[in-house]
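During the reporting period the student researcher (J.K.) took over the structure-prediction task from the postdoctoral fellow and processed the backlog of single-chain submissions. One of the processed entries is reproduced below for the supervisory committee.
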Amino acid sequence: MNASNLLSTQQALAADASSLNRLKYQAGQATPEAIKETAKQFEALFMRELLKSMREANASMKSGLFESPTENLGTDLLDQQFAVQMAGQPGGLAETIAKQLMQQMGLKDTGKPAAAERAVPVSDAARHFVRQHAATAQDIERKSGLPASYLLGQAGHESGWGRREIRMPDGSTSHNLFGIKATADWKGKVAEVTTTEYVDGEARKTVGRFRAYDSYAESYQDFARLVGNSPRYAQAREQAGTVQGWAQGLQDGGYATDPDYAAKLSRAINTTLQLQRASDAGKLS
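J.K. obtained the following structure tokens:
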């Protein structure tokens, strides 16, 4: 399979134009690392479409439990998460594609992992944060379909892994782990704190009004409702098959004003993925 055939196949499989354009760009970067990452993302897209086709072929999956739009979204996001988890395994489709492309481009495998697969330094604060919130994030995943790793990574990034929580005037926590603003339609409690916003790429200090909750669980639930229902984040939901796609979709939807938000959020989510793999292997203490 040559590069042009690969991109042609991607046009049939890619869930949206943004994902396709990102794969095209990466495929054009003539390095083994870029090719490996492109092949892995292509395999994830392929696996997602395969899972989708299997569900559609099973008439029983079309009734009852999966009829509402929210539940259909949850099912699709779970399929995307499974696809990402299955992609990139030794001996899989991604490895075959990468080898063929590198051979045809005259490149040699350096043996270094792709950038997205390199180990992310994990601090003690992140370990503690993930242990503290894992059960809540998994519960929200079951209800909304949003991957627990995405929820934990975003909450960790926004709160500095629990070290920079938004505080109420008396110093108590607002339980707002996602930095969600208190807009005019918010009827709940409010915390006002100094925050950094970016205007034309320039960081500026300002006083922001943020939502406050009675528990961390309410914070996770509110975030899931926000990104699951708002048209602003439709791109993020469509690109949730990859960490980078999800993060870029949130940035493009205006979730944050930081021009580097997508890159920072991707690193945080990859940290939680690393911790989850360590936990599954019995190494997280």
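The committee noted the following: Residues 125-280 form a domain with the Lysozyme fold (CATH 1.10.530.10).
J.K. will present the remaining backlog at the next meeting.
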